[in-house]
Automatic annotation (TrEMBL):
Name of encoding gene: panB
Superkingdom assignment: Bacteria
Cofactor(s) for this UniProt protein: Mg(2+)
UniProt GO cellular component terms: cytoplasm
Active site: 190 (proton acceptor)
Residue positions binding 3-methyl-2-oxobutanoate: 52-53, 91, 121
Subcellular location: Cytoplasm
InterPro entries: Pantoate_hydroxy_MeTrfase, Pyrv/PenolPyrv_kinase-like_dom, Pyrv_kinase-like_dom_sf
Protein name stated in the entry: 3-methyl-2-oxobutanoate hydroxymethyltransferase
Protein family membership: Belongs to the PanB family.
Naturally occurring in which organism (per UniProt): Xanthomarina spongicola
Assembly information from the UniProt record: Homodecamer; pentamer of dimers.
Pfam family, one: Pantoate_transf
Keywords carried by this UniProt record: Cytoplasm, Magnesium, Metal-binding, Methyltransferase, Pantothenate biosynthesis, Transferase
Amino acid sequence: MSVAKKEYKRITVKTLVDMKANGEKISMLTAYDYTMAKIVDGAGVDVILVGDSASNVMAGHETTLPITLDQMIYHASSVVRAIDRALVVVDLPFGSYQSDPKEALRSAIRIMKESGGHAVKLEGGKEVKESIKRILNAGIPVMGHLGLTPQSIYKFGTYTVRAKEEEEAIRLKEDALMLEKTGCFAIVLEKIPAKLAAEVAKSVSIPVIGIGAGNGVDGQVLVLHDMIGMTHEFHPRFLRRYMNLYEDMTSAISQYVDDVKMKDFPNDEEQY
């Protein structure tokens, strides 16, 4: 049965909980700069994630680990200036929250004060529980992240599907319940079996957003540059490309180069 889409002037953490309760799916995309965020927000996306994937997409690093807190604040502040409607969630980068709850709180406060973001996201389950509690006690909304956690890539050694074995699946379910009980307003599940993700979504009252986690969850997130085809060498099963912008941009730029070389640009109407 289709569910009528309700119009929301501004998305908040409460809006997302209401959307889950009403059976309305949540749309989420990444953005890292003003211009792209303006387009994403204007298109009606509910949540914009200023992801630490900026480390890969914007800076060309192999992993998400190198990006710093200062760099995340720079990207987030650029995005926030573009937004009229979407909820802006900002990733806490690697090293800014894992080992010390006090450091986690300081990092989250800096993001909220210096970027104007609306919430933070961090990876992990019970091992980061104290950091989550400390951040929440300061009144800062927290989104959790379970399954494939890219900041732990060197621990896993691969980007393969997580929680296929029963022991890890049980642990993931326990962590999801813990995140809800601790006070997280939503959870991202990355690259886990669809059946398990659907079970988790049914077991908690907070929204569950999937990436490579099937359609039984409460919403979906993709990296914008993957979805519009600006990146062209990344081909996971879960990715649907809605454009092939890499080819379109390459063609346009090549045409510009030719026009300049052939003295066709600028023409008489394009000069003063």
